[in-house]
Design a protein that fits this description.
By secondary structure, this protein is mostly helical. It has one domain. Helices cover 61% and strands 5% of the residues. It has 2 helices and 2 strands. The chain has a two-stranded antiparallel sheet with strand order 1-2. Helix 1 packs antiparallel against helix 2.
Length: 76
């Protein structure tokens, strides 16, 4: 199974944006430790955006896909 890093980061960003938007909608009702979770989700979203932009501007030497099962050869 191979993974395209741009798609992988893109789908993560979409999922976190949905969660972040829902939390932002109820931000005035969030208190205590839940506000810490909100800031952690915000930080993670910003981190993913930075990685996605970095991935857009860097060239990969070994192609666009990352092999997941590298080294796990079928031994019969």
């Amino acid at each position: 199974m191979d993974v395209n890093p741009k798609k992988f980061l893109g789908y993560q960003i979409i999922a976190i944006i949905i969660i972040w938007a829902g939390m932002t909608f109820f931000l005035d009702k969030i208190t205590g430790n839940a506000r810490i979770v909100y800031y952690v989700v915000t930080s993670w979203l910003l981190f993913l955006i930075v990685l996605f932009i970095k991935n857009l501007f860097t060239k990969s030497n070994n192609g666009e896909v990352i092999p997941i099962n590298k080294g796990k050869e079928d031994k019969r």
